[in-house]
């Protein structure tokens, strides 16, 4: 019996902020391909694609460096990166009259939806894992269910986040990520590839932490 083809579609900012709220910066250095392999039933499914939707914010050089190293690490293990962009929107305070320009991320939501849908059209997978708690993606789930009755959609909530009830209503199942899932998916300090990715100092694990590959019983 052949295994089902599994693919994950990840809302980068939704997952990033959930991991940041765990208060353990080393968890941000997360191998999303490995994370997907952890959450699927390995006896019946095989990961064929992982798509990560994100955008670079160019206003902070150090943050930008960390983001680029992370993107390189993901690409080195086969993750597909879909980039959005930032714009600056004019903002004003009604009370004091102060004005400023707020950086706002654009395209991630639509890139996530279109990537999942386009790959279904191309028959890339049998089962999709949608990693987000953003209820805006309920429309994605609804259109998917109507168009692809022969495929399954699993909604995956980032750690510490509740499932969107609207997405759940169209999904074939649900998974809640937790800190252990992320911890077991952490990259090594160097991720080799055509261009080596180096873990930023800010993502160094705490003293005494053992990489998943080196733990007893691995």
How would you describe this protein?
By secondary structure, the chain is an alpha/beta fold. The protein contains seven helices and ten strands. The protein has helices at residues 12-20, 32-39, 61-76, 108-121, 138-147, 165-168, 179-183, and strands at 4-11, 45-54, 80-83, 85-92, 99-106, 127-131, 152-157, 173-176, 190-191, 197-198. Strands 3-2-1-6-7-8 form a six-stranded parallel beta sheet, sandwiched between helices. Strands 4-5 form a two-stranded antiparallel sheet. Strand 2 (45-54), helix 3 (61-76) and strand 3 (80-83) form a beta-alpha-beta unit. It is globular, with a radius of gyration of 18 Å.
Secondary-structure blueprint:
Layout: E1 4-11, H1 12-20, H2 32-39, E2 45-54, H3 61-76, E3 80-83, E4 85-92, E5 99-106, H4 108-121, E6 127-131, H5 138-147, E7 152-157, H6 165-168, E8 173-176, H7 179-183, E9 190-191, E10 197-198
Parallel strand pairs: 1-2, 1-6, 2-3, 6-7, 7-8
Antiparallel strand pairs: 4-5, 9-10
């Amino acid at each position: 019996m052949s295994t089902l083809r599994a693919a994950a579609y990840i809302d980068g900012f939704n997952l990033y902020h959930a991991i940041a709220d765990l208060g353990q910066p080393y968890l941000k250095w997360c191998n999303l391909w490995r994370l997907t392999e952890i959450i699927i039933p390995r006896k019946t499914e095989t990961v064929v694609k992982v798509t990560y939707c994100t955008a670079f914010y160019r206003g902070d050089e150090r943050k930008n460096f960390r983001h680029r190293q992370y993107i390189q690490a993901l690409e080195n293990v086969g993750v597909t990166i879909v980039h959005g962009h930032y714009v600056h929107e004019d903002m004003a305070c009604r009370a004091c009259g102060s004005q400023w320009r707020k950086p706002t991320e654009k395209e991630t939501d639509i890139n996530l939806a279109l990537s999942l849908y386009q790959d279904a059209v191309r028959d890339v997978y049998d089962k999709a894992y949608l990693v987000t708690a953003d209820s805006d993606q309920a429309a994605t789930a609804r259109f998917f269910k109507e168009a692809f009755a022969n495929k399954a959609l699993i909604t995956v909530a980032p750690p510490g986040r509740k499932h969107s009830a609207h997405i759940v209503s169209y999904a074939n199942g649900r998974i809640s990520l937790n800190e252990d899932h992320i911890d077991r998916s952490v990259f090594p300090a160097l991720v080799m590839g055509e261009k080596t990715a180096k873990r930023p100092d800010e993502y160094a694990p705490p003293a005494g932490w053992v990489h998943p590959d080196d733990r007893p019983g691995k």
